[in-house]
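Worked example
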Amino acid sequence: MILPSIETPADLRDLSYRELNKLSAEIREFIISTVKTTGGHLGSNLGVVELTLALHRVFESPRDILLWDTGHQAYVHKLLTGRRYGFKGLRQRGGLSGYPNRSESQHDWIESSHASTALSYAHGLSVALEQRKELVGHGGQRHVVAIVGDGSLTGGMAYEALNNLGVTNQRVVIVLNDNGRSYAPTISKLSTSLTTLRLNKTYLTLRERFRRLIPRLPGGKAAYIGIDGFTSVVREMVTPHTFFENLGVRYIGPIDGHNIRQLETVIKNASQWDGPIVVHVLTEKGRGYEPATNDTLKMHDYKLPPRLNDEDVAPQSFTQAFSDSLIALASADDRIVAITAAMAGPTGLLGFQERFPTRFFDVGIAEQHAVTAAAGMAMGGLKPVVAIYSTFFSRAFDQANLDVGLLNLPVLFVFDRAGITGDDGPSHHGVLDIALCLAIPNMTIFAPSCVEEIPEMLATALSMSTPTAIRFPKTLPQPLDKQIGEGLRAREIVRGDGSLCVLAVGKMTPNSYRALELMGSERTRVTLYDVRVLPPDVAMIDDALTHDRIITVEDGTRHGGAGTLMVSAVRNRAQELERPFPSTRILGVPRAYLEHHQPDALLAEIGLDPEGLAAAFARLLDDQPEFPRVLPESPRSNFL
């Protein structure tokens, strides 16, 4: 076994290519074994094994800065930088993050779990190193390398960075890992040979001499035009992505991403280029594991399903309920269209795509475009449904606010993975969507407490002529009563004696109900509402005013979120009706970055589990102050 002997990238330098190929196989076995146990991103990491080995043999991390985008393709990088033992707890508290993490290692510079950002980081870091005279070619020995791909070049921010890199001629090596998510030109002997030629320094020098010399000869201008035209045609035939060079970014490729020797040669030569350069590398997603290569959708984020007893029936997820309901509604209304940002499978739109292919739009990792395109569709009389993860909505807030909200267009946002999501860490918790949506005038937000609410809420939202959103969690809450509300009205779950009114949002409604069960006889003092819709139902607010105390509960940020809005509504209503303002509390996610952990465990840490809620309700009933929970700090630092 070679892998146990690799503790730092320097340990790779003395290995032969035969040993490197053996190590590649060992790494794949290790990743498959780990991810099948812990869950994680399987296919993308199996595809970058040889590429990562080559990068760490050519460059000297962390002196040379390696930036991974998307970050979920960095498992091999973690293995080679001394974190092998941490994989036992991958994506679990105390174990490794599923993405690069600055608190884990000095080899991790960014935490690129949201895609299309690395090129902008690279531009900034290159500028900083140049000014400090540490950048290679500018008085120093350090390189800046951005590994992009796996869909990250479908995001518009990446092209903004490319444009600026070309304009400033900033020295950055860009490795484009093309595993079929973006585009896949064909490798041929001609393209490989031409790539090698175009990197050859002698060829480059001679070519420039000929270009300067030929126009001076008799008939030279015509010859120059002919030669230049011929090379342009060949370049277009062999490397169709001259788009990069039109931006001022040199392009090399495509290269076989599983040939370590060839990768090293090309990357070494590219590192000597005095300016931005793209090395286009073709890899096979899921390489070495047949189930992954045959089904890259499922192998993107893989985990063995839980074992069920024969009598057990797997519950329907929120995502599946949304999928089924949308197809049913779209069958009766051809104005309904669906849009997603490279998340058709995870957001439940594959069935819609199969049934209505001309009404389905996957725009790639381009949430901003998705939202404004949806606005245009709404202008044209369609009913667009934009389905994305809650955490990714923040990337398109400006478009939602000014392109949808300002024009008061009927675009429906569907936020999957809302609230505390757990395993993927701070970048994936969907805790901002409520606060962001409430900042948009005329936006209505639906938060189902159970799967059975989805069809009703979806139908209501699509019938409205203003912007709407539906948010639901990744995991199912415990069953409540399987009853549903109607329209824009809240639903009373439990009636108390008027001492305390609990206004619970979405997943927090079942948790609050369980909390009442833990309170014994004290539960008779508590009224519980399933808020269902924001802005809140006026009838619910009026009833809350008849109680001595009010507490709001949400799994979104408590700063500027649902609780803030509802307490404000209570205060305004009290003034209108000239009634006393009750004592109030707001429970929600604190203003902190929560680390990766199981969702229920994280909820317990911040007091949003049934036990924590029961204690909070009891304290408020006894007029005791709220005790803020202190979360463990997670330092994130790195040094140039």
